[in-house]
Amino acid sequence: MKDQIQLPLDQVLAHHAASTPRRTFIKFNGHSYSLRDIDRLTTVFASFLLSQHIARGERVAILSHNRHEYFAAYCGILRAGGAVLPLNHLLTHEEIDFILSDAGVRFVFYDSECGETVGKLQEKGGRRFFSLPGVAEGGCAPAPAAFPDHGIDDISTVLYTSGTTGRPKGALLTHRNILANADAARKAIHITPRDRFVVFLPLFHSFTFTVCMVLPLITGARISLLPGVRPFERVVKSLILDRITLFVAIPTVYKILADKGMPWFIKKLLRLRLCISGAAPLPPKVIRQFEGVFKVPLREGYGLTEASPVVSINPDEPGGDKPGTVGLPLPGIEVRVVDDNGQDLPVETAGELLVKGPNVMQGYLNRPEDTEKTIKDGWLFTGDIAALDKDGFIRIIDRKKDLIIVDGLNVYPYEVEEVLYRHPAIKDCSMIGVPHEHEEGKELGMMYVVLQEGKTATARELRDYLTEHVAHYKIPRRFIFIEELPRNATGKIMKKELRVWYRERETKHG
To answer: What pTM value is reported for the model?
Structure first.
């Protein structure tokens, strides 16, 4: 295991394809693809790119839904000496155009479902677009005698941040960053070749790629790859027929399952041993509900794109977890909590979370000033407010940029949201800070609320409920009831969008 993670990612694939060529790696659309199949397809993509005269280190984008060619194209770009830029297919063509221009991309692989977006991107010119299945089926470019040299410390991936706080930035990750993170996750959750993953989260997200693709690769586990979460009946079918042992999802999925459950006979057929949640905060109430219904441990983790992405996870040993925290740092990863002057803070004291380890990115593409602000002396400044308990468990309190200052006092929205989630009428909620109507420079808290179907609640009832649990100054000034909160592809609530909604609402109502 140690030797293979000293190799670039495409060579790790080649290593496994040579040692266990017939082992099934990916099941997709009723077909099974062995490690040898995927490795051969990787060579097809690499040879094709070399025939297009890809430059050493050049960034090549993938704009596609989940499919087996995705991983082969990813590794093919690396084998050809390039770096991969995974694109979020849920973005608009203008947002994608910004990313492609920022990264200087000439070549884009895409699937037919993204054809409309590609059509709009092609109008601008200057880039070449290639069909993923088309290249995979063509395979006409001859393989060279030798592929370009590349090492584990070369940039393998440029992952653009979600842009929840501004324009997205490209995090530069090496082969080592991603492989070290996957190996640390292997140790933390004890993955073995007997494990089977169902993968329906989008592969363009770092959480999915590292935990659901690279981790199975280095351990010899098997992947059941699905195009997406809908229809959910397809996920359930895979859980049963593919005898899935590891279920990796985002909080939204666990909320739905906790509320609706499954028929008893389906639960009887499940072989799950562990469920993992990441990419967004998971309320402790959902953990309790889910584990009560399914009798399977649900463990919350934490990460960010700049850390490849996993930083911590709750241990999967019985009774070893602490709901309400995001667990312990993965092996080999250090964390600190510091004040605004960079000084370490005592246990249970809130401050900015810093991360250090082989998983930390090299910096942001073309943004040296942002890099200098984010990485100092090898420590990644996450921008998240957290506290460490006496056992080293991390409790995420909020995004530093989401901090609300009410009359000079700090209010972390997540603290208030977590309490409100306990109210039986609440399905979803998110708190933002907005300018005070009458006093310049002051802020007020506003809570957006989505009610459970068939439940009712008034602003006064919710305010009275919060009064029992949080300090008066933390209680939102106003509650705004809506049908659905805006979320990105990984289920993270887009507070930036909520602020836009609020400004538009205030403008409209004058």
So the answer is: 0.82
